[in-house]
Amino acid sequence: MKQELIRNFCIIAHIDHGKSTLADRFLELTGTLQSRQMKAQVLDQMDLERERGITIKLTPVTMKYRSKDGQEYLLNLIDTPGHVDFSYEVSRSLAACEGAVLVVDATQGVEAQTIANTYLALDANLEIIPVINKIDLPVADPVRAAREIEEVIGLDAENILHVSAKDGTGVPELLETIVHQIPSPQGEEDKPLQALIFDSHFDPYKGAISYIRVFHGKVRSGMKIMMMSTGKVYEVSEVGVFSPEMSQVEELGPGEVGYLAAGIKEVADTRVGDTITDAVKPAAEPLPGYRRVLPVVFCGFYPVEANDYENLRDALAKLKLNDASFHYEPETSVALGFGFRCGFLGLLHMEIIQERLEREYGLELITTAPNVVYRVTKNNGEVVTVDNPALWPDLGEIALVEEPYVEANVITPSDYVGAVMDLFHERRGEFMEMNYLSPQRVQVIYQLPLSEIIFDFFDRLKSCTRGYASFDYDISGYRAADLVKLDCLVHGEKVDALSMIVHKDQAQQKGRALVEKLRRLIPRQLFDVPIQAAIGNRVIARETVKALRKNVLEKCYGGDVTRKRKLLEKQKAGKRRMKQVGRVEIPQEAFLAVLRVDEE
Amino acid sequence: MTAVYIHVPFCLQKCRYCSFNSMPLPDDGMLVTGYLQALEKEIALYASRYPNEAITSIYLGGGTPTVLPAESLCRILFCCRENFACSPEIEITIEANPGTATQEMLQLLRDAGVNRLSLGVQSFKSAELQMLGRSHSVSDIYTAYDAARKAGFDNINLDLIYALPGQSLESWRDNLRSAIGLDSEHLSIYGLSLEEDTPLADELKEGKLEACSEEMQLSMWEETAAMVTEAGFIRYEISNYAKPGKECKHNITYWENKPYLGLGAGAHGYLDHVRYGNEKEIQKYIEMVERGELPRSFEEHQSIKEEMVDTIIMGLRLTEGLSRPGFARRFGCPFESLYGKELKKMVEDGLMAISDEAVFLTEKGQLLSNYVLSHFV
């Protein structure tokens, strides 16, 4: 394929702004899929995505498009994941393209996420085609949306296309614009192979499949290739393109997008951002921008039924096959028994994995409250990273504690800016900037600890702005902080799974809220159960679950027995979801109580 | 099947704590007549299916059976006797509201073979009766009781309710003293249970009344056991006390999880490993019987496991507990081999005890019986 006829592009859009629907129209108009093969949001892969109507990532697709100039072009649509958790993946997907279609909802305007991703695209020197979508809706305000694109992103409003992905208006014009504005790839066929991995998935028959964009050289089956980050060598068993299902081709040359199978055992060996080269005649340098992504949010997964441990392990291994950014390792909790400490790119990533474990693998899980990774310097100079509060060093050993900070960017209608700023202050935020995008919309930028946003920050933001704010963040480094470990003792036993790291100034209030919450969640036992919150040996809050003294159904005759049995069965089923800690049974919800100590 | 329960779903008025299947006695005499005819047909229906059953107890409950004319009640009993073989020692109980039990009626019932009377006293305090929405007065209780004795009832039960909203311990003691003073053979004493969607529960929810605290309930429970036992009664079930030999045979059938026949609209029964409930709506009930059908609205076939659980949760209500040989005979396996671990824990916690004959709840275990039983389901 001549590179002049290839266009590699992606779509940048906020959740709900119509990315999947627009992709559907492209597929139809280019005849890639006949309309009878179409179902809504064809390229959304997971049930989860279709169900929630959110797109985590679309499948890449290659489309043939005959332009009005008479030429047939090859359009490669590469998706960018639409969530902040995956911003590294976004940057790699963008690096595989020469252009981006920026979709803005005519009823909503520019959102924080869109800005972040557009900046990433501009950094990657992409040609950006701004598009205002949903112009068919009666409440559409394309003029406002255009002004925002111009003011916030700095793109010329004159060139903005107006489309309705839903009814197809403007989409043919958009395809023409893509062909004429986005530059063609400029690779060299004779150079050693350099192909960028921008995604991957696991196929039970072919092994890990790398999604690649070839920059220079060619790749074909039978060829020996090398992963430049690890030096591992594989023999290519198959190359192909996405149409959108995988279909084998002879070879992939410069500028082309497709997939490669090479008997790779797991997706961890085909890392996003890595460069594939010719093992025999390797390129001197990898393509720029590769880094290993590290999880930033951790939590513990424990099976409710101890004998599900093996099943959980197998399920995690299977998920890991397909998701290199997800980490897990076995851990043991005194309270919860055997389980796994898992690391994620963010909260959505965590929720996705948790939901898949429960839904696809039918596992019942106890999830401990998520936490970030702290950096603790001990008195002896040793620096340890702590991803589990249970492993926090002793109070006396700690010289310095640092926690990860993020730069958070919120765009909100100006009516709610006060509420947003209050929320940031409550979450230890440090004000950086405020910009009026228009008289009605404000952008505020804060620095705040990552730990403050993993506890229901997004929900709170949504509720204090009636759902109108959008939010994005970027890890900005570590900062020293006055943090302590808050332990929780139930009936004198420390419950490791309930420990949390909190700011010293908040410890008292959080401790009190936690014991109060637990008092309501822990069922009454046959004895008084004291619940204490402590820092080191110092108890800072205390509550008591009073002993159960009378629990009897006094009237029970023939007709009552079935109802009585069912009641007891229900009671027993509730017990199954509890964990025995010492002599006390603690219900599952209690382990998440630490998440919600700010409520009420 | 040895026990027969017959439901009379009519009352003078609905009590304010009641969630049972009962309705005010209809002005429409036809409906009552139709109901009584249907009852007789239902009796005949079962008699033809179980021709050789000897029965040892009949229990006429409700609702308030005594809102019906004594003649009607007697007819039902005659019908039972005609259709079933009744043992000579048969226990025939009727529930009565003190306000509706006249001397004449009680005499007719006694003469018809009713030998046990259960009086729905509930309280000896006017204010408490009023709060409960009972239709009788305090003096009605004494009148009815004397009339029953005069009619020859030598086995009388009094129903009492404690833990009423706002009730003091002293007031409850007064109630117990009054009950004991009557010198009946049997006492059934229940803590008030607040059922959803009853006027009383609503008032508590709205904050118009204050529920009895757990501490108070506990004191009342303890006081009850002490005073009633002192007066010569034996607690033979969690809420039932009897003078020696005066335990209610009929109710023991339930607690031993034995089969019984339930008759009438809304009645429950347990026959051939099937628990069933009759149609509650009187008109529908009548129509079903008229068509020659068993007038049931649901049936649940009991698995062995369910039968076992029911046997345990009912059997442990009895003070003497669950018979170990009986259990082993019935299920082909000793109780302690099925529930060894649970039993051990309960014994360690002082909630259960074991003898050669039985496993049973301790006093503490009775108070916490729901907790204990949840280990055996």
Structural class of chain A: alpha+beta
Class by helix and strand content of chain B? Answer: alpha/beta
The fraction of residues in strands of chain B falls at 15-25%
What is the gyration radius of chain B calculated from CA atoms? 21 Å
Strand % of chain A is: 25-35%
Strand order of the largest sheet of chain B: 9-10-8-7-6-5-4-1-11
Low-pLDDT stretches of chain A: 50-55
Helix content of chain B: 40-55%
Name the assembly state: heterodimer
Largest sheet of chain B: 9 strands, mixed
Name the poorly predicted regions of chain B.
none
The CATH level-2 architecture of the largest domain in chain B is identified as: Alpha-Beta Barrel
Short description:
The complex is a heterodimer of chains A (600) and B (377). By secondary structure, chain A is an alpha+beta fold.
Structure description:
The complex is a heterodimer of chains A (600) and B (377). By secondary structure, chain A is an alpha+beta fold. Chain A folds into five domains: 3-181, P-loop containing nucleotide triphosphate hydrolases (Rossmann fold, 3-Layer(aba) Sandwich), CATH 3.40.50; 194-278, Elongation Factor Tu (Ef-tu), domain 3 (Beta Barrel); 297-367, Elongation Factor G (Translational Gtpase), domain 3 (Alpha-Beta Plaits), CATH 3.30.70; 375-481, Alpha-Beta Plaits (2-Layer Sandwich), CATH 3.30.70; 484-596, Elongation factor 4, C-terminal domain (Alpha-Beta Plaits), CATH 3.30.70.2570. Helices cover 25% and strands 34% of the residues of chain A. Chain A is globular, with a radius of gyration of 27 Å. Mean pLDDT of chain A is 87; it is low at 50-55. Chain B has 377 residues and is an alpha/beta fold. Chain B folds into two domains: 3-255, Alpha-Beta Barrel (TIM Barrel), CATH 3.20.20.70; 304-373, Arc Repressor Mutant, subunit A (Orthogonal Bundle), CATH 1.10.10. In chain B, strands 9-10-8-7-6-5-4-1-11 form a nine-stranded mixed β-sheet, sandwiched between helices. In chain B, a hairpin with a 2-residue loop joins β9 (234-237) and β10. The radius of gyration of chain B is 21 Å and the shape is globular. The model of chain B has no long low-confidence stretch (mean pLDDT 94). The interface between A and B is medium-sized, with 23 and 41 residues.
